[in-house]
Amino acid sequence: QEMGTSLSVAEKNLARSTGKTLNATQSDLAAKIKEFIADARAAGREGDWTRARSLATKAQVLSEELASSL
């Protein structure tokens, strides 16, 4: 559940950047967020919940950084 919440927050924050012109730093953050989200989902499918939670948290933190820079 904690992983799901982190992923939801990350996806919501990432969606806020859609349609906006991002600078290089913001584009890099967005790419990393997408990668962490995908990796977290993959880890969850594999049953590696510790890794999934860690990746989801990283995605959330980066997404909050991205959202605050928009």
Description:
This protein has 70 residues and is mainly alpha-helical. Helices cover 81% and strands 0% of the residues. Helix 1 packs parallel to helix 3 (49-69) and helix 2 runs antiparallel to helix 3.
Name its key features:
81% helix; elongated; mainly alpha
What is the H/E string?
HHH
Class from secondary-structure proportions = mainly alpha
How many strands appear in the DSSP assignment? 0
Main beta-sheet strand count, sense and barrel state: none
Number of helices, where a helix is a run of at least 4 consecutive DSSP H or I residues: 3
Helix content: over 70%
Q: Low-confidence parts lasting 5 or more residues at pLDDT below 50?
A: none
What would you call the shape? elongated
Q: Strand percentage, roughly?
A: under 5%
Radius of gyration: 12 Å
Average residue pLDDT: 96
N-to-C CA distance: 28 Å
Concise structural overview:
The protein is mainly α. The chain has three helices and no strands.
